[in-house]
Amino acid sequence: MAESVRVAVRCRPFNQREKDLNTQLCVGMTPNVGQVNLLSSDGATKDFTFDGAYFMDSTGEQIYNDIVFPLVENVIEGYNGTVFAYGQTGSGKTFSMQGVESIAAQRGVIPRAFDHIFTATATTENVKFLVHCSYLEIYNEEVRDLLGTDNKQKLEIKEQPDRGVYVAGLSMHVCHDVPACKELMTRGFNNRHVGATLMNKDSSRSHSIFTVYVEGMTETGSIRMGKLNLVDLAGSERQSKTGATGDRLKEATKINLSLSALGNVISALVDGKSKHIPYRDSKLTRLLQDSLGGNTKTIMIACVSPSSDNYDETLSTLRYANRAKNIKNKPTINEDPKDALLREYQEEIARLKAMVQPGAGLVVNNFSIEEERKALRDEFEKAMADLRGEYEREQTSKAELQKDLEELKAEYERANANLDNLNPAEAAKKIQQLQDQFIGGEEAGNTQLKQKRMKQLMEAETKTQKLAAALNVHKDDPLLQVYSTTQEKLDAVTSQLEKEIKKALSKFQSKGYEREIEDLHGEFELDRLDYLDTIRKQDQQLKLLMQIMDKIQPKSKKTRLHSLERKTRVDGILPEKSTNRDNSSIGIIMNLYHFPGYVQEPVRQEQALLRSNFDDKLRERLAKSDSENLANSYFKPVKPSNVINKYKSDLKLSTSKNLFPAKTPTFDGLANGVIYSDALFERAQSAKRPARLASLNRNNN
Ligand code: ADP
Ligand code: MG
């Protein structure tokens, strides 16, 4: 069933700067009906209605209990859920997502979700859970793993028909409890990019997504997988206001690219007419694709400042949020998904168990040592044939081939030896290590904890119902109320009538709709000016760079060659341009130097004559700089090592020592609880058992 994106607005208290400047309050709220009123300097108000309105004194606890709690409950049941914080820099996004640990009521959505998930797993009987997390950042349209071994490495976004969009090579960390999750949150948060702008010294200029995957397996073996995305977006403000220049400007432009792409996706979804939703326009929208118009329950927390000097940004945020609430998603429970990590554990345990069965030569549960050995051999032979074929095609040196074949053989022998070395005691230990990663049911008898969770859920539901009732269109209809006297009823009706007249009049007097149009115009105008400003600044930067380049190298290669060409034509050294010749700069050089197979016959005779005059001049010019030697670099011999590296990277082989897929979850990976997204999926994709060589403990020789 389709359901709308739920939107709550949170207004933070005045900060010191605003207090010092004595700025005016421009935001008003009526929390019990989700109303937000924005007051402009000329006294006109704009009214918006949301699924929640949280004023300055609100707490992280209220927001979580009212709107996030039911969503996380759904994630535990196997739905996907996304919570994202939107708003200008300094409006309280990070405060809402992370909050402050020292004030209990102000802990944010992320740590509360951890508590919630682990309470739920502990109090649920007969289900084994596997909880794992990932944390990534999108900075300058590049995706990085905040929990990976190399924070600088850029990761690619990939898409597969069965799995949807995912980040290849993202590390996923198995967690057994709240402290483990918090440790990941803190570690990742400290790895985020921060840059100082005038708005807020510590503001983060990146978008971050913390994801918690909750997989549950019932006793019958069926798996459900819920995924919770906790998104802290970068500031939505216009860059002219931030005073960004140089690197900061470059960042701001890219951030706006992602955010305006998000805006376009929202508009296209709300519009309902467009068949094409531009998810692919930015990394952010690609990754949030499922959360906007897809299989996910979504909440947006729009954060605003109370101060009148942020009126424009607040209006823009409220408009954005107002549009977002019209997006419809179609969430469904993810049952028995192919890429469940739990399945990997199940299979690895089954495999180890089968291997140590007495008479393992026989087939047990479809696994046997003999079968395993044969598969290992096949895999080795295929890899060897591939490698040899590739080398022959590339005609690279025999020595290189020999070396790599030897490494491949050594790897095979190591893996084969592991099969022999597997003794029952060791296998039992490994099985235990894998099973230790599961959690669930530890507090099954704790009725107090169970009741607390139920109570929270009931309260959230009551709150939603109350809000819905308050928003009912007949709420103010005096004819539907019960009055003790006719006079009371008359008074109520009269006052309602007066209110309606006042509303209509004020709309008429202030030309409400015209004003709305003017506002929109104003907003577009601001955007336009902002883009112009960006273009101007980038233009200046480009000019500066050109000047610097000119100082270092008076003219670029291409310009030099073209002017040289022009000059030779004017001087009559080269004939006028004709169609039967390659007139590119490189073509001229190659024609003149008579490269075999390149020169066309009609040109050849002319060249003998031209060369004698031209040779000296050209040689003299080209000799001035090594980097100018285009002909040489054009015919640069291909190094055998380049070909090998290309082949290896094609096969995702990172080093010559590691000739089998590097990131396939090995036993070690599963036991340590660090698995890489692409490896997990590739294995699920091929729908077979783990690659044999890689699935064994390679270092255990
Ligand atoms: P953003 O992430 O949107 O750039 P922050 O969350 O970092 O903004 O908030 C900016 C500042 O305002 C921080 O010092 C934060 O502690 C404070 N702040 C934000 N929201 C609130 C709030 N609701 N109550 C108290 N302080 C807040
Ligand atoms: Mg922030």
Automatic annotation (TrEMBL):
Chief localisation class: other
GO CC, alphabetical: cilium; microtubule; protein-containing complex
Organism, scientific name: Caenorhabditis brenneri (Nematode worm)
Residues reported in the UniProt entry to bind ATP: G87, Q88, T89, G90, S91, G92, K93, T94
Protein location: Cell projection, Cilium; Cytoplasm, Cytoskeleton
Protein name per the record: Kinesin-like protein
Coiled-coil region: 377-425
GO molecular function, one term: ATP binding
Protein family according to the UniProt entry: Belongs to the TRAFAC class myosin-kinesin ATPase superfamily. Kinesin family.
SUPFAM superfamilies noted in UniProt: P-loop containing nucleoside triphosphate hydrolases (SSF52540)
Domain Kinesin motor per the UniProt entry, residue ranges: 4-327
Gene3D superfamilies cross-referenced by the UniProt entry: Kinesin motor domain (3.40.850.10)
